[in-house]
Design a protein that fits this description.
Blueprint: E1 2-6, H1 10-19, E2 24-26, H2 29-34, H3 40-53, E3 57-61, H4 67-80, E4 84-89, H5 92-103, E5 108-113, H6 116-125, E6 129-132, H7 134-139, H8 144-158, E7 163-166, H9 172-181, E8 185-188, H10 190-195, H11 200-216
Parallel strand pairs: 1-2, 1-8, 2-3, 3-4, 4-5, 5-6, 6-7, 7-8
Helix pairs in contact: 4-5, 5-6, 6-8, 8-9
Bound molecules: erythose-4-phosphate.
Erythose-4-phosphate binds near residues 6, 133 and 136.
C-alpha cells in the first residue's frame, strides 16, 4: 500500500520524506489556501517545490469546471514536472477530460468521489486514481470505509488498473481498515502517519529497557 500525505505544507512533507515512508502527495485548493498560496505563478512554483521534495506522484487540482478549462489547466500542470498527477473533480466535463488525459499519457486523480458509480465511471474513463472521501461520508452518517470496500471489489472484478486512493482519512483506525480492505493508496495528514508509531506498551517497554540498562551501567 502506498502512503501519500494530504497537505501543501512543505515542512510536513519534508518530515514525512525524512521518515522514509512517503510515496506521494495530494493537495487541493483548500490545502493550498491554508498555506496562503495564491496567484497562478505562486501556485505553480509551490507545486514544483513539492515535486522536488518527493520522489512520487503529486496531485495538483484544476480549478476549471469546463472541458476546455480542465484540459488547458491540466496540460500546464503536467508540463511542470513528470510527477504531477492532474486532480480532476467528479463532474461531467471532468470525466471527459480524464478520458482525454488518459489518451494523451497524462496521469489523473478523480477527486470528490462519494459513490461506487462515480468511481466506476472514472475508471472507465481511464483515471489513474480515484479518491473516495472516507471522513466526509462518515461526517454525514454514512460509512466511508464501506465505499472503499465496494470500489476495491468492483475494480478487482474487472481488473481495472485504476488505483483506489482512500482520501479524507482522519485517524489511524481509518488507515488500518483501508489496509485491511486492500486500498492501493491512503492519503492523510502527517499526524495520522506518525500516529502509526505509537503504542503505550512500546513507550513503557522502552523506558524499562533503558532504566535496566542504566542500573547496571552507571
Ligand atoms: C483528497 O485528496 C482530499 O485532499 C482530502 O483527503 C480531503 O480531506 P478532508 O475531508 O479532511 O478535507
Amino acid at each position: 500500500m502506498k502512503f501519500f500525505i494530504d497537505t501543501a505544507n512543505l515542512k510536513d512533507i519534508q518530515e514525512a520524506v525524512e521518515l522514509g515512508v512517503l510515496d506521494g502527495v495530494t493537495t487541493n485548493p483548500s490545502l493550498m489556501a491554508k498555506e496562503g498560496i495564491g496567484g497562478h505563478d505562486n501556485v505553480m512554483a509551490h507545486y514544483k517545490r513539492i515535486c522536488e521534495l518527493v520522489d512520487g506522484d503529486v496531485s495538483a487540482e484544476v480549478i476549471g469546471t469546463t472541458f476546455d478549462e480542465i484540459v488547458r489547466e491540466g496540460e500546464a500542470l503536467a508540463e511542470l514536472h513528470p510527477n504531477i498527477v492532474v486532480k480532476v473533480p467528479m463532474i461531467r466535463d471532468g470525466i471527459k477530460a480524464i478520458k482525454h488525459f488518459s489518451e494523451n499519457g497524462i496521469k489523473t486523480n478523480c477527486t470528490l468521489i462519494f459513490s461506487a458509480g462515480q468511481a466506476l465511471l472514472a475508471a472507465k474513463a481511464g483515471a489513474t486514481y480515484v479518491s473516495p472521501f472516507v471522513g466526509r461520508l462518515d461526517d454525514i452518517g454514512h460509512d466511508g470505509l464501506q465505499l472503499i470496500e465496494q470500489i476495491v471489489n468492483i475494480f478487482g472484478n474487472y481488473g481495472y488498473p485504476t488505483q483506489v486512493l482512500a482520501a479524507s482519512l482522519r485517524h489511524v483506525p481509518h488507515l488500518i481498515q483501508c489496509a485491511e480492505i486492500g486500498a492501493d493508496v491512503v492519503t492523510c495528514p502527517l499526524n495520522v502517519i506518525t500516529g502509526l508509531l505509537s503504542h503505550p506498551l512500546t513507550d513503557k517497554g522502552l523506558a524499562t529497557f533503558l532504566a535496566d540498562h542504566k542500573r547496571v551501567n552507571a
